[in-house]
Amino acid sequence: MASFLSPCVLPLIPSYITFITGMTLDDVQRSRRVALVHALLFVLGFSLIFLALGASATLLGRLLVTYRVWISRVGGVLVLAFGLYLLGVFNLGAFSRERRFHVTDKPLGYLGTLVVGIAFGAGWTPCIGPILGSILTYAASQGDLSRGVVLLGAYSLGLAIPFVLAAVAMERFLSAFSVLKSRMVWVNRLSGAVLVVVALLMITNYLVVITNAMQGWTPDFLRNVL
What we know:
single chain
């Protein structure tokens, strides 16, 4: 959700919705069912990419299972850098330049919306890079394929749910955006603070300790389901 609220994703949501639907904002508000279908196909497209990234990261971690402790520590340093960047401690040119695909002519129909969603997931702007990179780094340190897929599936939901809600309730989204746009810098800072905490836990291996403790507190029936 922090990725959705980032300064170079949130302001572009209306443009993306009108692009994938081929309708004006007024038409989107009147044709909610069509907007919903396009939105679902769009989020399916980028979710496929994110799930593939999660599976790839954990496969890499499985290949390097012998060095998993060091992967976690080095990954923690990388996540720490991402967090400090979001906090504004330093600036990286690589995260300031546009990386998304510019699809000037969307293929017609619902298939075109799916293609645009895949393009979104494959080449979106660096604004989501620090958060996505941190999750992929953590997934690689686990070396568990199902774990990586679940982590990136949760990340996809964080982007997908508010996007779909915005598509079917555009007038409310625009009202909420007018309130949020002056506070988006704090979203970045809060995300950065969370990443810094996670990084320190990864470096000190306390993340594993906390995870194991929480598993012990989880009821057996719930753990079996999960």
